[in-house]
Structures are given as C-alpha cells and as structure tokens.
C-alpha cells in the first residue's frame, strides 16, 4: 500500500502533463495557424535581407534596425498569440466530441489549468523565437561591438529618442518587457475565450482591445492627458511594440520606477484574467 501511495502523485503528474501536451497540440496543429506563422517568418526573412543589403555597419544604424525589428516582432507575436489562443475554449463550447471526452475524463478544473499552461507556453515560445532570431541577425551582420555602445545617430533620429543606455541594455529591457506583454496578452485572450462562444468573438475582442489601447495611449500623449498616457503605457500593445524608447517616456522608464512596475502589474492582471477565465469555464455556458 505504501508503494501504491507513492505512485499516486507520479500518476497524477503524468495526467497533468498529458493534458497540458494535449491542449498545446490543439493550439498549434491547425493548418491555418501554421500558415500564419510561416507568413510571419517569411516577412521577417525579407526584412532581414533588405536590412543586411543596406547595412553600412554603423553602430547607430544597427541599433535602429534592432529596435525597429523588435517593435515589428512584438506586433507580429501579439497577432499570432491572438490567432492561436482565441479558440482555446471553443472546442468545449462547440461540443466537439474529442474535447468533451477529454474534459469529462480529467475534470473541468484540470482542463482549465492545462489550457492556461498551454497558452502561456505558446505565447512565450512565439516571442522567444522571434526576438532570439533578431539577436542572432544583428550579431551576425554588425558584430558584438554594438552591444556596448549607446544610442547614436541614426538611431536617435529614426526612433525619435534621446535614450542614453547601451544597445545591450536596451535589448535586455525590451526582451523583459516583451515577456510581460505576451503574458498579459495571453491572460486577456484566455479570459476573452472563456466568455466567448466562438473563436471569432474572442479574436475580434482581443484585436479591437489591443489597438484601442494604442489609440488611447497616443491620445494621452498628444492631448497632454497624462493619466491616460501613464495608464495605457502598461498595456500589451505599448510593451510588445517597445515604445518605451520614444519621447516623452524614455528617461522615465530607465530613470524612474516604471520598469519595475511592469512585472507587478503583469502578475496582478494575469491572475485576475486567468482566475476569471477559469471561473467562467467551470460554470456551464448558457
């Protein structure tokens, strides 16, 4: 009996891992999603070729290219996360037999946790692949010396920034903020999917909310309404597109406490999003 008792936790962990892998496979196995990912990487390869052919190996240009690529890939990662994660609960709501049997076998609570883990894993993987490829591209074309240099022309002109940090520090901060952005976005899409009855409703709601935050952020800056600008500077669209390098916030991000508020806000909001989505899923949809 003691040996059997010791095996029970391992068996339960095996069920959780199998459920997690099952949910992760559901998110990535559809041809449309793979086509969207392939299109993003093709677009990236074209951009790399254009930048590499025009490179004059000037440190300032390398920094501008790096930050512009990271901004583009922050946007592409967000769009792929919305597309991939929007149907996370659609199988149960559309009464697909495979999903219903899996949920019945493992319970709704474990299924909801497995879906959350799958969404987070997929989101972080997308961002890591895109930004990691940017790092390798910049390193291969311009070399490792640029990571120790500060923002110079044409980076300052092209990005409209007076940021005085090194290129390596800017990349590290961007990667850190990108992780927070995709986690926050994954939680929001997870919650929207739980409250939506079709993948289209979830994707449309996430996409509209994503760009509305960008509009409100821009409006806060242009209208001089600082509360709106401060509030929406923590939204996934601003973090994922790495707009902290642009005026008027660059010195505040690195000189103040803004950078350290991001993980705190991300953890709190994600907890609310995932808890809300889980509670909604545990109730039978009407």
Major beta sheet, specifics? Answer: none
For the secondary structure, the number of strands is 0
What's the end-to-end separation, in Å? Answer: 44 Å
Please compute the radius of gyration using only Cα atoms: 21 Å
Overall geometry: globular
Secondary structural class: mainly alpha
Tell me the strand percentage band. under 5%
Instruction: Give the uncertain stretches in residue-range form.
Output: 1-11
Seen as an oligomer or otherwise, the chain set is single chain
Tally the helices.
Answer: 13
Mean pLDDT, nearest integer? Answer: 72
Helical residues, percent: over 70%
Count of discrete structural domains: 1
What sequence of helices (H) and strands (E) makes up the elements?
Answer: HHHHHHHHHHHHH
Keywords: Membrane, Transmembrane, Transmembrane helix
Transmembrane segments: 32-52, 64-90, 116-138, 175-196, 202-221, 228-245, 257-275
Give a written overview of the molecule.
By secondary structure, this protein is mainly alpha-helical. It has one domain (2-282). The protein is 80% helix and 0% strand. The protein is built from 13 helices and no strands. The radius of gyration is 21 Å and the shape is globular. The N and C termini lie far apart (44 Å). 38% of the residues are buried.
Précis, in short:
By secondary structure, the protein is an all-alpha fold. Helix content is 80%, strand content 0%. Keywords: Membrane, Transmembrane, Transmembrane helix.
């Amino acid at each position: 009996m003691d040996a059997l008792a010791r095996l029970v936790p391992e068996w339960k962990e095996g069920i959780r891992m199998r459920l997690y892998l099952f949910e992760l496979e559901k998110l990535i196995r559809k041809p449309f999603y793979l086509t969207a990912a392939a299109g993003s990487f093709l677009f990236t390869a074209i951009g790399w070729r254009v930048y590499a052919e025009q490179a004059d190996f000037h440190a300032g240009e390398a920094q501008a290219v790096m930050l512009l690529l990271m901004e583009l890939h922050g946007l592409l990662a967000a769009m792929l996360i919305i597309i991939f994660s929007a149907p996370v609960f659609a199988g149960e709501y559309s009464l697909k037999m495979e999903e219903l049997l899996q949920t019945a076998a493992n319970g709704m609570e474990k299924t909801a946790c497995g879906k959350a883990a799958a969404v987070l894993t997929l989101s972080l993987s997308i961002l890591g692949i895109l930004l990691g490829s940017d790092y390798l591209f910049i390193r291969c074309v311009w070399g490792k010396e640029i990571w120790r240099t500060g923002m110079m022309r044409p980076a300052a002109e092209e990005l409209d920034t007076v940021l005085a940090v090194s290129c390596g520090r800017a990349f590290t901060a961007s990667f850190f903020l990108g992780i927070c952005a995709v986690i926050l976005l994954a939680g929001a899409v997870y919650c929207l999917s739980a409250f939506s009855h079709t993948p289209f409703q979830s994707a449309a709601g996430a996409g509209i909310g994503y760009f509305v935050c960008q509009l409100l952020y821009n409006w806060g800056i242009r209208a001089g309404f600082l509360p709106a600008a401060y509030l929406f500077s923590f939204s996934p669209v601003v973090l994922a597109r790495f707009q902290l390098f642009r005026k008027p916030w660059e010195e505040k991000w690195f000189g103040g406490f803004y950078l350290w508020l991001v993980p705190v806000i991300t953890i709190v909001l994600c907890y609310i999003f995932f808890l809300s989505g889980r509670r909604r899923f545990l109730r039978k949809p009407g």
